[in-house]
Design a protein that fits this description.
The protein contains eleven helices and 45 strands. It is α+β, with helices and mostly antiparallel strands and 880 residues long.
Amino acid sequence: MLYQLKTQALIFCFLMICAVVSAKEAYQPEFSTAGFYALPNTGRDVYSMNLGWRFHKGDVQGSPFLSEYDDSRWGVVSLPHGLEYLPEEASGCVNYQGIAWYRKRFMPADSLKGKKIFLHFEGIMGKSEVWINGRPLTTHVGGYLPVIGDLTSFIRFGEENIITVKADNSNDPSYAPGKPQEVLDFSYFGGIYRDCWLVCHNPVFVTNANYEDEIAGGGLFVSFDQVSEENAVVQLKTHLRNQSDKSGRFTVVYSLKDADGKVVKEVNQTLSVGKGKDAYSLRRFDVPSPKLWSPDTPYLYDLSVFVEDAQGNRLDGFKQRIGIRSIEFKQNEGLWINGKPYGKIMGTNRHQDFAVLGNALPNSLQWRDAKKLRDAGMKVIRTHYVIDPAFMDACDELGIFALVPTPGWQFWSDAPSFSASVYSDIRNMIRIHRNHASLFFLEPVLNETHYPDSFAKNAADICKQEYPYPYCIASCDDGAAGDRYFSLLLRPTANLKPGKTYFTREWGDNVDDWNSHNSNSRVARNWGETPMLIQAQHYADKYKGVYTQAPQVVGGCFWHSFDHQRGYHPDPFYGGFMDAFRQPKYSYYLFMAQREPEKSDLKAETGPMVFIAHEMTPFSPKDVTVYSNCDEVRLTFLKDGKPYTHVVPRGQTGMPSPVITFKDVFDFMECKKLNRANRADDVFLYAEGLIDGKVVAVDKRRPSLRPDHIRLRVDNENVDLVADGSDVVTVIAEVVDRDGVVKRLNNYSVAFGIEGEGRILGDAQIQANPRPVRWGSAPVLIQSTPVAGKIKLTASVILPGQHMPVAGELEFFSVGNPKKEIYTPSELNAIPAAGSVIPVVSANQSELESEVDSLRREINRLRIKEVEMQQTQFGQGIND
């Protein structure tokens, strides 16, 4: 029996009405499934396989891939899954590396008989092996590309089927990235950490490009030519395969619709395809007066592709969202988008790393990450590897360019298997991303790596082979081996080469050395105002350095958007403008102030803003810092009650909106006098942002008074929690005074309780629950169950007392799951309420273990010095 989680329309609507949401209407972004958007009644169905996997961390005796293997003592988890839940600070190789096993049972419905059935994992970290019913299905190395297997001949109808996966995220130099985690600046979090799908369609079908492994082929390839505001040429290449028992004539139908659902163009092509053969449909058509995609106007068309037989019966079909745009790097003229000069484009880097979850982010968190970055004005994200498809979907929708590199960092092996794995990664990262409007340019070479010249040439050639059309370009580090094969160079130096365009792939970090990692750019949020202000000012100075370069340098990506874990250092990377839970630091608002002040129709926050970077505590600085993108900022404060105005000079050089400082404004003793005189209402900072003489944005600060209660709020970017058993939302508990002002300076710990259709992820062993309050807040992650409904969350200090803050309570709702799910109810019911925890290292080491540990630390110190040398050689010096 096929167990499907189906949501009735009336229940779904009821829950949507009842959901506790903000003033804005809740929004549910649309995500692709296995590389496409499913359409009803096309002969193609896609099912989520995320729910109810048996799981064991570590290797096991016997043969767990055999159907009769007893896994009844294993735990039960749902995907995405990252092997374990981790503390917020889990650097220095705290995470598990090694073998893990997964097993999933399912009963295929009789309606799938005669169908082609593919199993599609979006990502399994490291080395993986997949079996179905005890028989090998496929193997894969590398953690960032899909793992796909054809189940058709393995499926047993009328009985239980078992999928088994062996995942191993151990260090392995035979494939990229190759570098051991203990000398790596990120972490190899493991597991089946992205979605898993079952794709079922008729034997005559459009293929999957990553499965077919054909140069510039397989699946659907959409490209553009001669793009302008007057006209654009759309080029379509579709791979059709006939695995039915007879030859036939089949028609491929293309329907292009605008955002309102109106058909803009419809074309078709009829092909004769023999039994067991394949063929390509090639069509090219004009779109007059196209609505063009850019970061400022990310307009998306829906392109539906259908396959019909000679009688007009629909055999296959799906949808892609496409954006018509042109990208050109015109050497000394810089970046041109859609035939016009664009100026500097600024953005950031992003690792797929979240507190507690590691890399196992559900699609909603991928979208929220992109939304928060676009809110801050980021227009390009360097992703470091092939990123989760949901993040690319979000970039398409929100107007963010994605700079996609092949995975690699400071490691090269002469073993043939290593270069072969890199070449395969390059080809497949192009195939998986080539139809995305957000694809900016490719970075096919290994980051900061001394590779041979021949590798660079091969990488450049592969890019030309896999994308032989306009508006796609590959890049390479300036000064690296083989950089002459690339017209776009990264890491610009003082001497820019004629005929080349440059982009600064990483800027902003500043460390003393690569062993200690002391830095004025690496600041934990809970360190408070002065460190965060210093970090923000440092980033402002570095921003100017990129922004004022010649037009030949088209822009750059800041390092790094979020705090994240690292293998080679015990501390996380604290240099993000948000922490690992995506709570903003002051530098986040500095970047937000660089966005355009005009409002737009983006799904992200746009328009004028003003932010006071000051908390009015007894230890706050006398100077008051304000970030704003307005023409003028007027600050009213308590010293004499008169407004003080800062005018932002027009046409200034440097960054668009420099840091604004009102000197010698705050005085705690003045606040004290007013409070003692019962004039607490006069103690405030009030900032007004003005454009053309009109107030368009305001911000107000008051000092926090006596802690009064705990306030809970859902940090969901207005996207509902979906009841699919895997979705996750962050809830923030804040200690506030009676007026709702956050009390930044306190040392409470908050214990959470939950009722209803949700689970708290993590427990006391990883400081997830209870969680210490840091800089006034304590975040917690809530995972949905497979049933839509109410969730009640409570938060209280762990030692309640008569004068302690009153406990907080929050009710919100999960909404119905639109996906079709395949799962076994008995397995799903075995999922525990709390997640697994990391093992605790015993303090009772033997003397020999202690000596070995000391030796290991010394070896690592020397290896990290090698990292330092390589960082410096590739332009990441101490003054960056």
